[in-house]
Amino acid sequence: MNRIVIVDDEQFVRKGIIALVDWEKINYHVVGEASNGEDALELILNEKPDVVLTDIRMPVFDGLKLIKKVKELAIKVPKFIIISGYNDFEYAQRAVRLSVTDFILKPIDKDELEETFMNLAPIIEREYLEERANQRFVNFSLYQRIIAEGNEPTTQELAVLTGDIDKRNCYLIIDIRENPLSDKADEQISRAISDFIGDPYVFLHPFEHDHFGVILQEKHLPQNINEVTWFLSRLKSHLEKELGNQVFLFAGEVEAGLSGLLKSYQTALVTSERRYIQLDDHPLMYNDTIAKNHEENKPLDDQLITELIEKIEENKPKEIRKQVDKWVDEVLKSGTSVDSVKMFLFQLEKKLESTIHQLSGDEDAENELESLVAIFEQRKTLGELKQDLEVYVLKAGEVICKLSKERYNGDIYKVKRYINKHYHENLTLKKIAGKFFMNPVYLGQLFKKTYGIYFKDYLLEIRIEKAKQILRQTDMRIYEVAEQVGFGSPDYFVTQFEKMEGSTPSKYRQRIIN
Predict the structure, then answer these.
(1) pLDDT of 63-92, one tens digit each?
(2) CB 80: neighbour CB atoms within 10 A?
(3) 383 Cβ partners below 8 Å, 6+ apart?
(4) Nearest to 116 by CA among 98, 95, 106, 102
(5) Which pLDDT does position 486 carry in this prediction?
(6) Which of 70, 74, 34, 24 is nearest to 55 (CA)?
(7) What is the C-alpha to C-alpha distance for residues 341 and 382, in angstroms, rounded to an integer?
(8) 404-458, pLDDT tens digit by residue?
């Protein structure tokens, strides 16, 4: 919302202008009013409005002198709209030379005033976007050189970073939890924060993919340090509403000066790294517990993996859940780092994959389990990670149990694996029985008993599933698909496909495309 300051030496005129227009409706917010140029100057420098609506004749110093002073002192010069009378022609000429945006003659007309501000809004928006685009590169360069690398800033650079060097600052990391982000995410974040704290000049920069850093100055924060977490909770809600994305917020210590800012940056990074000190995504601020966990830097006990895998291999759901609970408790208790949690999940995944490959006897066998590390990369809270881990390890228990039974059954498992690899060939029960030195009738009975389906039906299912995959992923002709998956006759393929899927291969492909 665009910010406006109204300046006129007559109070009833100021109040009348404020009451005359539905400012919110035209996307403006009156942030202050003043009765003379001197008070107006201070107000403008503090509030940094987008537009100043000012009378041309005022005591102390007039509207033109106000404009000159603002141009001399303000970091960003607002748009000026002059209120003038018919007798102010000389003033108007001078105002033109000062690049005044527009004039409004007294008495003020409501429709004219609204139209003036509505026409100005897209100009302000365009300039704002251009300014933010340029500022992005400036901010990132300052961050990299001064905050990340610790180089000495100039006085002007220091002013951009901290505003007042003697006042306190807090470095805040904003971690976007969901993807995809728009190309203008940093603009959205910058504007959302500016609206929330009432200051268009916040130092925000991207520093990793979907990560942003922002410096909150003392004037932005609650006076009581104990209220900062409450403040961050409200900011989080506001950001999520504006972005349509969930976010993590990690705040460093609130400290004064450049050294304090650098310390706040470092402690914000530590806080981000120790995010699993809690189950949810409440804003997290550096504290004594995080500091202690970071200093001790305890790795997770390898015994946790050994015990969990043991319960998985035994396929005992109740015991598996208990082990997951034990792991979560250990993560919370030790404030384990993000990297340590990731390493635990990586090792667990690789050990289970190794067990599954060993049981299947095939290194190229398709893994039925989703990647644990891929789940971790989705920026989960510890509570969400616990749920996903539980699903994963319970599924792993089922898979390993099934493979153990299949391996126990010996040759019949090898038969199934052979079918899965050679489904596209001219397979018959007699041929397979001969390959494995078995009686065809006995093989057929054993296959049905072990897998609950007849050999012929299983082969047909495999071929149809592979055909569906080819139809989805290629533009092969129907007869080519039939040949690819082992059907000697395209017509027979179409008949069997329609019987199993309720539609012809062509209609199936068309439904996928549409």
Answers:
(1) 888 888 988 888 788 999 888 765 555 555
(2) 23
(3) 279, 280
(4) 102
(5) 93
(6) 34
(7) 10
(8) 776 656 678 788 889 999 999 999 999 998 888 888 888 888 889 888 999 999 9
3-class secondary structure, 252: strand
- Helix H or strand E segment including 217: strand 211-217
- CA neighbor of 353 nearest in space, from 371, 341, 339: 371
Residue 107 token pair? 């008495």
Task: Provide the H-helix boundaries in 409-428.
Answer: 411-422
CA distances from 141 to 89, 131, 137, 391 (A): 47, 16, 6, 44
Q: Output b/e per residue, 2-32; b: 16+ Cβ within 10 A.
A: bbbbbbbbeeebbeebeeebebeebebebbb
* % of the chain exceeding 70 in pLDDT: 92
Q: What's the CA gap between 453 and 434, in Å, rounded?
A: 21
- By C-alpha distance, which of 387, 274, 280 is closest to 333? 274
Instruction: For residues 322 and 111, give the distance between their C-alpha atoms in angstroms, rounded to a whole number.
Output: 70
The pairing of beta strand 51-55 with beta strand 28-34: unpaired
Q: Give CA–CA dist 262/147, Å, rounded.
A: 6
Chain center to CA of 217: 24
DSSP 8-state code for residue 180 = P
Q: Which residues pair with 215 in a beta bridge?
A: 171, 203
Bridge partners (DSSP) of residue 174 are 212, 249
Spatial separation of the C-alpha atoms in residues 386 and 2, rounded to whole Å: 44
Torsion of CA 358, 364, 368, 370, to 10 degrees: 100
CA distance 279 to 267: 20
Cα angle vertex 12, ends 9, 16, to 5°? 115
Task: DSSP for 342-358, please give it.
Answer: HHHHHHHHHHHHHHHHH
| Sequence-ordered alpha helix ranges (H) in 244-381 | 257-273, 288-296, 303-314, 317-334, 338-360, 372-376
Query: Residue 195, exposed/middle/buried by CB under 10 A (0-12, 13-18, 19+)?
Result: middle
- Burial pattern 130-148, b for ≥16 Cβ within 10 A else e, equals eebeebbeebbebbeebbe
Residue 379 gets the label, from left (phi > 0), alpha (psi -120 to 50) or beta, of left
Cβ atoms within 10 Å, residue 425: 11
Structure tokens at 467: 């055909």
- For residue 33, give every residue at least 6 positions away whose Cβ sits within 8 Å of its Cβ, in sequence order, or none: 5, 6, 7, 8, 14, 18, 43
